[in-house]
């Protein structure tokens, strides 16, 4: 079956702009989690959605937001971009039950200039 | 609370063994291990659900010491294909389901 698909793969934005990233989970998976990956910090948890509801949220400013649609596809939005937002953004999907394997997408590489 | 991984990096020769540790300051409900190769997405290795549990997968195994709030990943007779960054992800008691917090990773390089 198809894996987790993230679009776009690469993105260059200017400071102050906003950006929307998309994640299509594996068919049948109801949970989508988002992570920010930078060289020094590893995988930083942003938020997790399950059945269109945000179930968990990491320690990121309000400029980072997300949503999940009825088909489990998820989007995350970053407003008023800062240089420090440059990172690889990964989404992971799982069936949503506790202690189950998460499948990661290839990520979106965001560069803010 | 982000788990702490050690060492941060390790270089091995093919055939050598390595241990990667993952420690938390909070009581752990479960520990997940993932490996990420350069330019690729993290890939699931295993989940440990209860104290004392040990699991193995090929020559990669892990243990979970619930009391010490730590897990260790053992790589035996390493192969070139083991190179990558290993992440542990933890779920804490009292945390919400689906809230998987990852450590900063351990970069493993296996040389011929």
Write structural notes for this entry.
The complex is a heterodimer of chains A (113) and B (112). Chain A has 113 residues and is mostly beta strands. Chain A is built from no helices and eleven strands. Chain A has strands spanning 5-7, 10-13, 19-24, 31-38, 42-50, 53-57, 64-68, 74-78, 87-94, 103-104, 108-112. In chain A, strands 2, 4, 5, 6, 9, 10 and 11 form a seven-stranded mixed sheet that branches. In chain A, strands 1-3-8-7 form a four-stranded antiparallel sheet, with no helix packed on it. In chain A, a hairpin with a 2-residue loop joins strand 5 and strand 6 (53-57). The model of chain A has no long low-confidence stretch (mean pLDDT 93). Chain B is mostly beta strands. In chain B, strand 9 and strand 10 form a beta hairpin. In chain B, the strands form two sheets. In chain B, strands 2, 4, 5, 9, 10 and 11 form a six-stranded mixed sheet that branches. In chain B, strands 1-3-8-7-6 form a five-stranded antiparallel sheet, with no helix packed on it. The N and C termini of chain B lie far apart (37 Å). Helices cover 0% and strands 55% of the residues of chain B. Chains A and B meet through strand 4, strand 5, strand 9 and strand 10 of A and strand 4, strand 5, strand 9 and strand 10 of B.
The radius of gyration computed from the alpha-carbon positions of chain B, rounded to a whole number of angstroms, is 13 Å
* Low-pLDDT windows of residues of chain B: none
Distance between the termini of chain A: 37 Å
Structural class of chain A: mainly beta
Largest sheet of chain B: 6 strands, mixed
In short:
The complex is a heterodimer of chains A (113) and B (112). Helix content of chain A is 0%, strand content 53%. By secondary structure, chain A is mostly beta strands.
Task: Give the SSE layout.
The complex is a heterodimer of chains A (113) and B (112).
Chain A: E1 5-7, E2 10-13, E3 19-24, E4 31-38, E5 42-50, E6 53-57, E7 64-68, E8 74-78, E9 87-94, E10 103-104, E11 108-112
Chain B: E1 4-6, E2 9-13, E3 18-23, E4 28-36, E5 43-48, E6 54-57, E7 60-65, E8 70-75, E9 84-92, E10 101-102, E11 106-111
């Amino acid at each position: 079956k198809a894996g987790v698909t993230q679009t776009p793969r690469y993105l260059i934005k200017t400071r102050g702009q906003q950006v929307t990233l998309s994640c299509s989970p594996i068919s049948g998976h109801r949970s989508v989690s988002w992570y920010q990956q930078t060289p020094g910090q590893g995988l930083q948890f942003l938020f997790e959605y399950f059945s269109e509801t945000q179930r968990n949220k990491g320690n990121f400013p309000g400029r980072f937001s997300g949503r999940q649609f009825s088909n489990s596809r998820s989007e995350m939005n970053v407003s008023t971009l800062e240089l420090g937002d440059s990172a690889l953004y990964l989404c992971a999907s799982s069936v949503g039950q506790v202690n189950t394997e998460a499948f990661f997408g290839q990520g979106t590489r965001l560069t803010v200039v | 609370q982000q788990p702490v991984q050690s060492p941060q990096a390790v270089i091995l020769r093919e055939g050598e063994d390595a241990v990667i540790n993952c420690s938390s300051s909070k009581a752990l409900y479960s520990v997940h291990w993932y490996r990420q190769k350069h330019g690729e997405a993290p890939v699931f290795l295993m989940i440990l659900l209860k104290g004392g549990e040990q699991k193995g997968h090929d020559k990669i195994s892990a243990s979970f010491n619930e009391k010490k709030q730590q897990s260790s990943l053992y790589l035996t007779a390493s192969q070139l294909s083991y190179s990558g960054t290993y992440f542990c992800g933890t779920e804490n008691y009292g945390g919400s389901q689906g809230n998987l917090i990852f450590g900063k990773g351990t970069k493993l390089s296996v040389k011929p």
